[in-house]
C-alpha cells in the first residue's frame, strides 16, 4: 500500500481563491455526512460545502462559492461576523471556534431556521481556514416549544385549579362552621329539653337538702327563743346546715353544667366514672318509676380518649329512652330493668344499654329496620324531637366509633356503642382539638 497522503495541497499560486483540492476520497467522505459542512477562509469567503449543506440552505454549490458566509446568516449575525474573525486573528480569543453553540441560519428563500454550529480551525500551508459543521435542529426546537407550551398550559391549569380548590375550601369551611354552630345550638336545646323533662326530679332532689336546712334553721330559731341554745350545739347544727347547703349547690351545678354542655378538650377519661355520674344525674327519676340499673363488667378502670361531656350526653339520651320505653310498657312489665354492659378488648370498649321495655318493633308496626331510628326527626314519642339518637350517632362517629341497634334482641331494646381506646392517628385535627362536629345526618 502506498504511503502517499490521500489529500495533497496544491502548490502556492495555483488558484487565487486558494481552493482546497477535492479528491475523490474527500468528496465521498463529505457528501455522505448527514450534517452540513462548510469551509471558509480567514476572510469569511466560502471555499466549499457538502451536499447536506446544499440541502439545508437550498443553494447549489456554484451559487455560494467565493461569496461571503454572511449570505447564510440573518442580519444580527452577519453584522458582526467579519469583526469576530478579525478579532480572533488578532487576539486568538475564540467566541465560537472550538466551543459550538446554537445559532440561526438563513435559507435561500429567506426563511430562518435554528441550528447547532461547531467551528474548527484548519491551519494548512496555503493559509488559515475554518470548517463549520451544521445540524438543523428545527424538529427539536419544535418539540421543545410544544413541550414548553404544554408545561405552561399545565401550570396555568394547576394555578386555576388551585384557586378553585382554595375557593371550595373556604366555602366548605364556612359551611362546616355554620353546621357546627347550628348543631351546638340544637344540642343545647336538647339538653334543655331533657332538663325540662327532669324538672320534677331536679325539684325533688334539691328539696331534700333544702328541707334539712330549713329544719335545722327552725330548730335553731326555736332554741334561741327559749334560750336553750348552747355554743357547741350551734356549731354542730351550723356544720350540718353547711354540709346540706353544699349538697344543694352540687345538685344545682350538676344540672347547670349538663345544660351548658361545655365541651372539654379531648383527654383520657374513665368511662365507669362517666356512667356513674350519668346514673347519679338520673337517680331520682329512676327511683320514681321503680327502675333498677345494673352495670356489668365495671371492675377496675376503663379509660377512653375523647370528650367526656359529649359521651355523657349520649348515655343520658340512651338511658332516658330506656326509661320512656319501660314506662310505656307500664304494668305489663312488673320488673323494669336496665342493664349497662361493658366489654373490652385491647383496642376497643363496647357499651351496651339494654332494657326490657316496649322496644322498637312493638312501638311501630311498620318498623323493619331498627337502625332507622338514627335518622334525624324520627321519633316514636308524642312529644319527642327525634334528634336524640341522630346527634348521639354523630357524636360517636366523631369519636371514631360506631353505634347501632341490635335487631336480633327481641325482649325490649339493645343499643351498642363501640369506641376505640385511643384516638386514631388519622382522625381529623378538629376532633383532636376538641372541636367535634356532632351535626346529625338528615
pLDDT < 50 stretches? 1-20, 428-442
Placed side by side, the strands forming the largest sheet appear as 2-1-5-4-3
The major β-sheet equals:
5 strands, antiparallel
What is the subunit organization of this protein?
A: single chain
Give Rg in angstroms. 49 Å
The topology string of helices and strands comes to HEEHHHEEEHHHEHHEEHEEHHEEH
Total number of domains: 3
The CATH homologous superfamily of the largest domain corresponds to Histidine kinase-like ATPase, C-terminal domain
Give the CATH topology of the largest domain: Heat Shock Protein 90
Instruction: Tell me the strand percentage band.
Output: 15-25%
Q: Considering DSSP H and I runs of 4 or more, what fraction of the residues is helical? A: 40-55%
Mean pLDDT: 76
Count of distinct strands: 12
SSE class: alpha+beta
N/C terminus separation: 100 Å
Number of helices: 13
CATH class of the largest domain: Alpha Beta
Shape category: rod-shaped
How does CATH name the architecture of the largest domain?
A: 2-Layer Sandwich
Amino acid at each position: 500500500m502506498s504511503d502517499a497522503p490521500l489529500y495533497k495541497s496544491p502548490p502556492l499560486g495555483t488558484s487565487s481563491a486558494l481552493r482546497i483540492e477535492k479528491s475523490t476520497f474527500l468528496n465521498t467522505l463529505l457528501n455522505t455526512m448527514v450534517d452540513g459542512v462548510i469551509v471558509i477562509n480567514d476572510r469569511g469567503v466560502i471555499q466549499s460545502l457538502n451536499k447536506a449543506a446544499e440541502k439545508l440552505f437550498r443553494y447549489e454549490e456554484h451559487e455560494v462559492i467565493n461569496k461571503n458566509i454572511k449570505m447564510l446568516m440573518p442580519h444580527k449575525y452577519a453584522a458582526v461576523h467579519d469583526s469576530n474573525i478579525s478579532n480572533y486573528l488578532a487576539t486568538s480569543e475564540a467566541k465560537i471556534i472550538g466551543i459550538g453553540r446554537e445559532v440561526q441560519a438563513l435559507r435561500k428563500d429567506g426563511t430562518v431556521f435554528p441550528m447547532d454550529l461547531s467551528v474548527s480551525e484548519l491551519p494548512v500551508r496555503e493559509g488559515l481556514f475554518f470548517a463549520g459543521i451544521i445540524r438543523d435542529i428545527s424538529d427539536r426546537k419544535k418539540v421543545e416549544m410544544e413541550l414548553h407550551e404544554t408545561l405552561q398550559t399545565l401550570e396555568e391549569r394547576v394555578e386555576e385549579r388551585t384557586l378553585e380548590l382554595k375557593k371550595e375550601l373556604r366555602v366548605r369551611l364556612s359551611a362546616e362552621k355554620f353546621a357546627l354552630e347550628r348543631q351546638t345550638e340544637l344540642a343545647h336545646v336538647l339538653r334543655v329539653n331533657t332538663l325540662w323533662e327532669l324538672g320534677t326530679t331536679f325539684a325533688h332532689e334539691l328539696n331534700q337538702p333544702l328541707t334539712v336546712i330549713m329544719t335545722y334553721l327552725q330548730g335553731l330559731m326555736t332554741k334561741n327563743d327559749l334560750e336553750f341554745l348552747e355554743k357547741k350545739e350551734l356549731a354542730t347544727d351550723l356544720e350540718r346546715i353547711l354540709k346540706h347547703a353544699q349538697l344543694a349547690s352540687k345538685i344545682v351545678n350538676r344540672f347547670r353544667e349538663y345544660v351548658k354542655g361545655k365541651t372539654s378538650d379531648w383527654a383520657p377519661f374513665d368511662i365507669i366514672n362517666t356512667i356513674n355520674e350519668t346514673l347519679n344525674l338520673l337517680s331520682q327519676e329512676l327511683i320514681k318509676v321503680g327502675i333498677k340499673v345494673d352495670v356489668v363488667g365495671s371492675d377496675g378502670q376503663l379509660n377512653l380518649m375523647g370528650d367526656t361531656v359529649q359521651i355523657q350526653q349520649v348515655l343520658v339520651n340512651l338511658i332516658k329512652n330506656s326509661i320512656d320505653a319501660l314506662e310505656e310498657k307500664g304494668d305489663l312489665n312488673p320488673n323494669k330493668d336496665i342493664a349497662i354492659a361493658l366489654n373490652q378488648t385491647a383496642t376497643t370498649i363496647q357499651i351496651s344499654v339494654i332494657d326490657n321495655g316496649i322496644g322498637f318493633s312493638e312501638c311501630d308496626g311498620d318498623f323493619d329496620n331498627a337502625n332507622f331510628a338514627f335518622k334525624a326527626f324520627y321519633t316514636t314519642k308524642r312529644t319527642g324531637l327525634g334528634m336524640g339518637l341522630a346527634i348521639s350517632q354523630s357524636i360517636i362517629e366523631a369519636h371514631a366509633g360506631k353505634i347501632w341497634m341490635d335487631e336480633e334482641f327481641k325482649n325490649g331494646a339493645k343499643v351498642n356503642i363501640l369506641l376505640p381506646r385511643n384516638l386514631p392517628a388519622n382522625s381529623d385535627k378538629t376532633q383532636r382539638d376538641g372541636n367535634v362536629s356532632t351535626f346529625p345526618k338528615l
